[in-house]
Design brief:
By secondary structure, the protein is mainly beta. It contains 1 helix and 7 strands, in the order βββββββα. The strands form 2 sheets. The chain has a 5-stranded mixed sheet, with no helix packed on it. It has a two-stranded antiparallel ribbon with strand order 2-3.
Length: 157
């Protein structure tokens, strides 16, 4: 496992939300600096309490199947030691706009996705395990991935 601390690889990743980071970051939106707070069920250092999940535990992704692109098995950052703290993609994935569920095994991105035809399995913050269609639009996936956006998520995912 190049670029990773030796250890066990895993098939599941924590849902880190929609921003592509598990900590507050600064970016530019319309040429102006903007601060983005992490939106997922896991946040570096501070953590997340159940009361922080204001969209509802049954509407928020907690853990999902990690997509490992064809030919990337046991290669960082796609498939590496899930206890590797310096490489977040070893143990987590992002979901939402820019981070769809992988539609096929050959998709080159480090996103959620699994071996089940047409669906990816997720554990929701309420502990329930439910399939999410691989064809879910990125916006709806983002609603499920964001713990506190105040937007209702459709039930037909």
């Amino acid at each position: 496992m190049a670029d990773s601390v030796p250890g066990s690889a895993g098939d599941y990743g924590a849902s880190m939300g929609t921003t592509g980071s598990d900590e507050t970051t600064t970016t530019f939106i319309n040429n102006a600096p903007a601060t983005l707070a992490p939106t997922g069920a896991f946040v570096r250092v501070t953590g997340v309490r159940a009361t922080d999940v204001t969209d509802g535990l049954s509407n928020t992704l907690l853990v999902g199947e990690k997509h490992i692109p064809t030919g990337k098995m046991l290669l960082a950052p796609y498939d590496c030691n899930i206890y590797d703290g310096h490489n977040i993609l070893c143990s987590a994935r992002y979901a939402g706009p820019g981070y769809p569920i992988a539609p096929s095994p050959s998709d080159p991105r480090a996103v959620f996705g699994g071996p089940h035809p047409g669906v990816c399995m997720f554990v929701f913050a309420d502990g329930g395990v439910r399939p999410v269609r691989n064809t879910i639009d990125e916006y709806t996936l983002g609603l499920l991935s964001h713990r506190a956006d105040g937007q209702p998520a459709p039930s037909d995912y």
